[in-house]
Amino acid sequence: MLDVTGPVPPTQVIWSEQMMAYRFSETHPMHPLRLDLTARLCRELELFDRENVTVVEPHVASDDELAAVHERGYIAAVHEVSANPEVPNEARGLGTEDNPAYAGIHEASARLAGGSIDAAEAVLGESALHVVNFGGGMHHASAGKASGFCIYNDAALAIERLLAGGVQKVLYVDVDAHHGDGTQSIFWDDPRVMTISIHESGMSLFPGTGFANEIGGPNAAGTAVNLAVPGLTGDAAWLRAFHAVVPQLAAVFGPEVIVSQHGCDGHKDDDLSNLRLSVDGQRQNALDIAELAQRLCGGRWIATGGGGYNTTSVVPRAWSHLVAIASGKPVPLRTPVPRPWREYVHERYGIWTPETMGDDAELWWRSWEVGYDPADPVDRSIMATRKEVFPLFGLDPWFD
């Protein structure tokens, strides 16, 4: 478990109200309201006031910085659409229903990307041990195309900056309800990066990828890991799946830094997935990833946001928990949501949010060591992934 009694880690939070310029439209699911309410809740919980926490404004990534993972032609296409949004470039995923074009889309997207590059610089320079960029996590963007509300892949840019700075191995863990396809594609044949994505099966959810047999390129077999769980998977089965795959592979891979994507769209009250998770389960998962970083990487951990479309009742609580965990002092689930914040949301948006920081969910999960149940669809998903990847690292898919 995460040691919350020892010294608190120097932590940075990437945040500026300018990040709210990442706004496709007033009706688009990826509305920056979710970022504003997260920052407001963090302030009300006094997370930004903790002595070990520094709030850092992100810079706008330059074209040269973006070109570390993105094609120059694609960057140019984003510039063109940004200047002339009435002329879409659907071949590049720009000006589509998912990614509507708007004036200034390049700068807004490059600012989110710059935040995660800043996070990598902070870890490399040892000015922070943990960094949270809850405005990042744009994991569907590939090297040459926008996809799934994502223009520039900030997580991939952070990973590439870590590698350029001398880090030998990076573990990327993606727990968004949707497959982290863009990040996987960028590092598909790079043995220095292991991408692990636990997500709802592509049989029922965008982007339709992320199956167990997607294991990486010829020079990096086994470093793409996909755990596709069925729709309706709840906390217990989801946590069981995570613990049956991620810690074992993380330990044998031996990363120096963990970069994680914490899309919270798997929540039962989120309309864009079919999973049945709680804020409690997502908080526990963040604790588990923090513990992995502490045990394997000397604590070095960069955490990003991602999906999450219940913008008032779910996202702010989930990501405030993430900030609290990263800063070394988790917020208990029964902590009251500050009344001024709830009243602001009600007055501004007409919604009364939950009164506590948790959902009062049952989180007990059955350890893999108890046994494999072939009648359980989640267990079958777990076994499919273990059979594909575990032997490549000398692990037994049945027992390790």
TrEMBL record:
Keywords: Acetoin catabolism. Pfam families: Hist_deacetyl. Residues 28-324 form the Histone deacetylase domain. Pathway: Ketone degradation; acetoin degradation. The keyword Cell cycle does not apply. InterPro entries: AcuC, HDACs, His_deacetylse_dom, His_deacetylse_dom_sf, Ureohydrolase_dom_sf. Belongs to the histone deacetylase family. PANTHER family: HISTONE DEACETYLASE HDAC1, HISTONE DEACETYLASE HDAC1-RELATED. This is Acetoin utilization protein AcuC.
